[in-house]
Amino acid sequence: MKVIDTFSAKIGQSGLPRPQVDYLELVFDFGIKDDKFAGDDLDKTVMIVGTYSYDLAKEYSINLEFGSLGENILFDFNPHDLAVGTRIKIDEAIIQITEKCTICNHLSVFDKKLPKLLKSCRGLYCKIEKSGMISKNSKVEILDENINEIAS
Description:
Helix content: under 10%
Radius of gyration: 14 Å
Oligomer: single chain
Number of helices: 2
């Protein structure tokens, strides 16, 4: 499992898709260095998405460029089946899933069907447990999974 790409918006940048960047510096108790959301809600400092979400949109003839879902990290696997509480190691950094993203009406700028289509795979918010640099092709490892919160 690996990182496909990384994205971050600086203060003053707005809209979607979120800009692609060469790397992300994850900083414990702060967020992503130079990201416009750093220092805000520490349980939502990193958003992860899998290519599955883009593939699903494409099945419905909605072609999106990576970064359109507002993610910071795009994975080559589907993280949306992981439970809240799951910890993920990306190179030396460690993040923990804190919340599943809710339906985002902002996505309707791409297609009115998109928010409901991606309701279960819109993205996952994470907090940073260990600082580190990550980039395209960074190795990803699931450290543990909070099995008590997996939906049946």
